[in-house]
């Protein structure tokens, strides 16, 4: 089965392709089909992921899978949330992973309550009008480290410290990260849902 991935993020594509190998599905990035990004006007991960999946399916005529993920920091009332990718821009930095990390560490300076969670919401639709989208959510709680550590991964991985491992996501081997990350948890749930309802 061919499924269009409603994302232009190379890191997400690589992670999800590796995680979904057991299903035997082929993920095709929407840009390879000439499909631009969808509008993401909503304030929740699930609404944005659903909008992205429906957009990609409508434009391609294929089933679609979308991920909306982000960082939810307790000290900031759950923000940046759906605005995670653009976090640095509100502080005058250009949009980039490194600048997001820099801005987060600056905003967290002097804050001792550093609990946060990475959340991934995957939504899959058989068609643009699918009345029964598959929805899977993965959530990993941790703490914001005081400085970046590790070189694996992308996004906020260098500053998401996981007490259970004593390491940041970026310090974990890729296979360990994928098995224990928010996206990995959501992908496992999604595979179960696809096996049960689609395959």
Fraction of residues in H or I helices? 25-40%
Number of helical stretches of at least 4 residues: 5
The portion of residues forming beta strands comes to 15-25%
How far from one another are the termini?
9 Å
How many structural domains?
A: 1
CATH top level label? Alpha Beta
Label the CATH architecture. Alpha-Beta Complex
Morphology: globular
CATH fold title: Maf protein
* Element-by-element helix/strand order: EHEHEHEEEEHH
Largest sheet: 7 strands, mixed
Radius of gyration (CA) equals 17 Å
For the largest beta sheet, what order do the strands appear in spatially? 2-1-3-4-5-6-7
- Uncertain stretches: none
């Amino acid at each position: 089965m061919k499924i269009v991935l409603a994302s232009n993020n190379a890191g997400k594509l690589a992670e999800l392709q590796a995680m979904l190998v057991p299903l035997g599905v082929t993920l095709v990035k929407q840009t390879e089909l000439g499909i631009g990004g969808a509008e993401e006007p909503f304030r929740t991960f699930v609404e944005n992921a659903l909008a992205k999946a429906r957009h990609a399916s409508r434009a391609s005529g294929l089933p679609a899978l979308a991920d909306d993920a982000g960082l939810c920091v307790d000290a900031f009332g759950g923000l940046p949330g759906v605005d995670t990718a653009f976090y640095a821009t509100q502080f005058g930095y250009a949009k980039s992973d490194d600048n997001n990390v820099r801005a987060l560490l600056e905003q967290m300076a002097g804050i001792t309550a550093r609990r946060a969670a990475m959340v991934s919401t995957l939504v899959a639709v058989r068609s643009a009008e699918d009345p029964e989208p598959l929805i899977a959510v993965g959530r990993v709680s941790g703490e914001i480290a005081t400085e970046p550590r590790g070189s694996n991964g992308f996004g906020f991985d260098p500053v998401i410290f996981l007490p259970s491992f004593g390491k940041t996501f970026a310090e974990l081997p890729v296979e360990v990260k994928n098995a224990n990350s928010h996206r990995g948890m959501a992908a496992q749930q999604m595979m179960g849902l696809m096996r049960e309802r689609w395959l």
